Amino acid sequence: KILPPEITLEFNRRNGDYSANYNIEKLLEFIRTELECRERNALFSISGSKSRFNLQQPPMHRNTMKWNSTTHGLMAAAASKGEDRVDHCLFCSGDHKSYLCRVGSAYERKEVLRRKGLCFFCLGKHTSRQCFRRRSCNRCKGQHNQAICFKVENKTNVSHMESLENKSEVGGAVAESRVLSTISERKPQCVLLQTCDVKIRNDTKVTRARLLLDNGSMRSFVDKDIACKLKLPVIRRESLSVFTFGNKSPIKKTFDVVKIELENREKPDFSVKIEALVTEQISGSDLPPSNLKAEIVQKYLEGFQLADSCFKGKVAVLVGADYYHNIVLGGIRRLKGQLVATETIFGWCLIGRDSDVRDVSVSLNIIIEEDLMSGLIKKFWELESLGIAENEFSDPSNDSVLQRFESEIEYQNSRYRVRLPWKSDKKYILSDNKKVAERRFERLRRRFVRNPELYKSYQAVLHDYLQQKIIELVPNTCDAERITFYLPHREVVRNDRSSSKFRVVFDASSHDVGEVSLNDCLHIGPNLYPDIFDLLLRFRLHPIAFTADIKQAFLQIEVNEKDRDVSRFLFTDDPTDVSKSPQIYRFTRVLFGVNSSPFMLAATIKHHLRKYQGIYPETSEFLNNSIYVDDIIGGHQNTEDAYHTSTECMHIFREAGMTLHKWQTNSEELRKLWIKEDMVSGDSSQVVEPSGLPFKVLGVSWNKREDSLYFDEQNLVTFLSSRVNSKRCLLQAIGRIFDPVGFLGPFVLRVKLLMQEIWKLPLDWDDDLPECLSLAWNRWCNEVPGLGELRIPRYLFSNMFNVGITKIELHCFSDASQKAYATVAYLRILFNDERIRTVFVASKTRVAPLKKLTLPRLELMGALLSARLSYRIIKALNLNLVCRFWTDSQITLFWIKGTANKFKSFIKNRVEEIVKLTSPEDWYFCPGKSNPSDLASRGTSVFELRDNHVWFQGPEWLELTSEYWPMQNNAILEGLDGIELEYRKTVSNVIQFGCTVNSEKLLVLENYSSLRRLYRVTAWIKRFIKRVKKIVTTKGPLTTEELEEAEMHWIQGEQRQCYSEEFETLAGVGQVKKNSSLYNFGPSLDDKGILRM
Questions:
Q1: Bridge partners, residue 587, by sequence
Q2: 931: how many CB neighbours lie within 10 A of its CB?
Q3: What number of other Cβ atoms are within 10 A of residue 213's Cβ?
Q4: Short name of one Pfam family for this protein (predicted)?
Q5: Cβ(276)–Cβ(232) below 8 Å
Q6: Position with higher pLDDT, 329 vs 43
Q7: What are 572-576's contacts with CB under 8 Å, separation 24+?
Q8: Is the pLDDT of residue 811 over 50?
Q9: How high is the pLDDT of residue 816?
Q10: How many Cβ atoms are within 10 Å of 603's Cβ, its own excluded?
Q11: What are the residues facing 506 on neighbouring strands?
């Protein structure tokens, strides 16, 4: 009954018995075909006749078309649809739709319509009064055509990501920097991008959308509308720095990450699952579909499925290089001119210039990665967190990586052989990277010709590798089906190293455009190394200290034959002979520079040490806790134990095919024993390396003769000698200060505060600093040469009295200023003869957040820093320590010794962590003048720090007996009010409310038939009371807040009536009694005074 009679008649004529063969799909297909035929017919039939339908009106989507009960209605709709294809603008006669014209102003275009007597709604040849298609503006929803919309005047077609800048919030350090932008421009010819018409599936929900393949993007994205429609679960969140095209300033934006399945619309078996970042919009413009002429498709792609049909829709998914080759199969067909078809799992995808299609938007989407400065920032914050942050969360997938490694490791010919930890989904998409390696080697070869000395150094290193069988020529019989990868390489010259000044480094992160690198295909693996902070603390525990190094540690582990071809590289024995092809080598050992190499080395060593747990139990345990990559750091109480441990270490590693060398110690007696065993040479120095450089222990300089630790400032001085006053240079300078223990804290704080000030300004990395900041920066730089004079003892328990130790105490001081907060820790050692010695252990400083906090809150943050630092020190030293904590903030002490639930959330959360890590009874008050952490919270010059006895040994009274310590006043809070103490306001309100409810109820519940009505009446009464008391002057309907307050009123009342005793104890001491029926549920009062479990 809905269809016109002639349409129904034609359908029955073609399908015979209507009732017997009725099929909705056939009916829809018939209607679509019939409509297209009538559209084509209408184009010819109305070309010479007058029509009330304007040729330039906006296109009408087929789904929104009104079906008329006459043929005339159907023909009119078809005519309107067909006439849209005549693209001559009413305003400028250009080759585009009239409603898209931007020539002149909206006012001028409206005057053109007025002069020509055209419709303001559809631009047709009739007045606005006569128009029956009164459509609202697509831009502002006003009653006019978008061509004459004044609200969008002067707005350019900018990228969607530009609008995201205004919505994003600038955050802190960025682990990984990305660039994402989209631009649009009008061009006369169409360039087709790789788009596909696919099904997007999530469990039972499926939708159809367009997909863009972009191997120039490093990540994949999905439109937010699709994610919401399919209700895709968020698996994690990631942060990117977003740059709009041509803009230098990044804006940090956090993206949700979801999993989706992309499916061929005709062949469900062809599908791929990907992870994508959720974004507001993929492209700033609608990309054109591939409307190819039928003869082109028939000639070149007959019998093949096109990936993108004529489905017009916005791009909902962008697949980047991370999944590009999971979709593209590799087949290529050149159609005509610059148009190419590539084979994908969704069909044949078209890309290139199509001269037959005009008037479209050219879209550009760019995602690039900028890791240099982000890497420096990440390194800086990792160093800042040493000693006060818990170890990284372990990825559950690391367990399977380790288990697989253990199952595949082999021991052959006194050496271990391992397999690479491949990612199962990436291994077989790794390309050989040979073209990239060839291009880079050609540039290197030309450098060899210009610099023969460089070639000699290069050749010497690789010749040594060849002699040691670390590398080998690729045999001619190599399996052609094996996965191969060619590594580009270059030299690195480090004059600041005692050995290996010239090294050849290989780039496992190299890849061609749109391809993955070797590092992308390998698991990094779990971190099996101890924390540097813990190692340095344990290094200070024993009077006899020693270190050693595993010679070429990575290169002593063989790689399984099956995995060797992914470490191929090119070299030549004659760089001057251009006609000679370079030789192909490959590594037979684990290569330093591959992201999984540190894991493979650590896992191999730990696997080997398990063999010796029964033979050398103490030494095996020592090595398990004292190895960091290829360095061994430890010590013993006497020379004999140190000697036995070192010789057993030599034997254990010799059995693994590894050699220990570069033995260093502060004990002359131990060094002589090593000389007898040929472990060291007789002419080794106790102060510097043979090269004249200082000895280093995990990056910290060690003077073995003085047995002290210090900072070697020469590298930083050299860098600053050619400095520029920019943000980049300042951050690079901070990155050159390695002070994990923190004894340079007060001096380094000054440059951290300077960095924060610079960060507030709209400066790019290389912009000149303002004059005031430049002066402060230059003053700091001029003091750097004095850093080498700052030293701390390596051994914590230097027994200058030659008597035993009776007691060891750990004293942590904390303080804060408006700029920063800090903590510093000392050991207080009591000897048998009642003498006392104090020694610096560690310190940490933190810059105050940009969001201003009150000074008491910053003091509390400093106290929390103390608690965290003490926890790590106790855990690392593994000693029976008596702990005491000192602060000059009485409010902080009151918070710590009080009940956390009484205070506001900020205070409550931090106090709870402090109490978890320490005992409130161990916290004491000390005057600010004798608080050493005051220096670390304000910063100082290197010369004042050098002469400051309090910083390196603590306050003078700490070396005295406890009766000389600061007096503890229990009445410390006289004169302070509740605002300073930050009590939770809800506590007193709940008690007062409880009394009110118990004495007299506000309303009688039995008089109300529904809860909703009760809440509304209560809300009106409460408003009336507030208006009488002139608390509020609210008028109009009830607000959501008022209704919520009414609901809370009754919930509180009922809870108070049933659990009055629990309310009183929670409001007073913060917890219920053990005999309460609610005790096992852990009840508490929330911010609104509601009893929660």
A1: 471
A2: 24
A3: 26
A4: Peptidase_A17
A5: no
A6: 329
A7: 572/445, 573/459, 575/445, 575/448, 575/449, 575/455, 576/449
A8: yes
A9: 96
A10: 23
A11: 489
- CA 121, CA 917: separation in Å to the nearest integer? 71
H-run or E-run covering 553: none
Token pair 């027994």 is at which residue? Answer: 799
pLDDT over 90 percentage in the chain: 41
Identical fold between 191-353 and 803-993: no
**HSE-CB for 899 with a 13 A CA cutoff:** 15
Distance of CA 549 to the CA centre of its chain: 34
The full set of domain ranges for the chain reads 5-41, 98-149, 191-353, 409-684, 710-794, 803-993, 1005-1092
Helix axis angle for 1040-1058 and 986-999, nearest 10°, is: 70
Which pLDDT band, with edges at 50, 70 and 90, does 1034 fall under? confident
pLDDT at 281 over 70: yes
Q: Does the pLDDT of residue 815 top 90, yes or no?
A: yes
Which superfamily does CATH assign the domain made up of 191-353 to?
A: Acid Proteases (2.40.70.10)
711: confidence class by pLDDT, cuts 50, 70, 90 = very high
Q: Are strands 568-571 and 177-192 parallel, antiparallel or unpaired?
A: unpaired
Q: Is 269's pLDDT higher than 60?
A: yes
DSSP structural state of residue 389: S
Is-contact 955 1017, C-beta < 8 A? no
Which string of DSSP letters, residue by residue, matches 913-946?
HHHHHS-GGGEEE--GGG-THHHHHH---HHHHH
What is the C-alpha radius of gyration for the chain, rounded to an integer number of angstroms? 38
pLDDT class for 9, splitting at 50, 70, 90? Answer: confident
Chain Cα centroid distance, residue 430: 25
Give the number of other CB atoms < 10 A from CB of residue 1001.
Answer: 12
Query: CATH topology for 409-684?
Result: HIV Type 1 Reverse Transcriptase; Chain A, domain 1 (3.10.10)
Write down the residue that tokens 């003053």 correspond to: 779
Domain 803-993: assigned CATH number:
3.30.420
pLDDT at 639 over 70: yes
Q: Can you say how many angstroms the Cα of residue 428 is from the centroid of all Cα atoms in its chain?
A: 27
Task: Say how many C-beta atoms besides its own lie within 10 A of residue 13's C-beta.
Answer: 9
Q: Which of 1020, 1062, 1050 is nearest to 1037 (CA)?
A: 1020
Which DSSP symbol is given to 1086? -
pLDDT over threshold 60, residue 246: no
Pairwise CA distance, residues 974 & 980, whole Å = 12
For residues 252 and 281, give the distance between their C-alpha atoms in angstroms, rounded to a whole number: 17
- Looking at 34-38, 310-314, 430-434, 692-696, which range is the least confident one? 310-314
**Cα gap 1063→987, rounded to integer Å:** 9
Name the DSSP letter for residue 595. Answer: T
Q: What are phi and psi of 594, to 5 degrees?
A: -80, 135
DSSP letters of 117-182? T--TTT--SS-TTT-S--PPPTTT--SS-GGG-STTTT-----HHHHHHHH----S--SSEEEEEE
Q: Are 214 and 318 in contact (CB under 8 A)?
A: yes
How far apart are alpha carbons 298 and 335 in whole angstroms?
Answer: 11
DSSP-derived pairing of the beta strands 836-847 and 471-473: unpaired
Average pLDDT along the chain: 80
Strand-pairing partners, residue 258, are 234, 276
Instruction: Enter the tokens of residue 327.
Output: 């979709």
Q: How far is CA 411 from the centre of its chain?
A: 39
518: CB partners within 8 A, 6+ apart:
430, 433, 485, 487, 508, 509, 510, 566, 594
The predicted structure's pLDDT at residue 959: 94
Q: Rounded distance, CA 862 to CA 847, Å?
A: 11
CA distances from residue 905 to 125, 161, 1066, 1081 in whole angstroms, order as listed: 68, 36, 16, 21
Alpha-carbon distance of 330 to 348, in angstroms, equals: 10
């053990």: which residue's tokens? 1074
pLDDT for 82-128, tens place per residue?
333 445 788 777 767 787 776 777 777 887 887 788 888 888 878 77
Which of 101-110, 320-329, 560-569 is predicted with the least confidence, judged by mean pLDDT?
Answer: 101-110
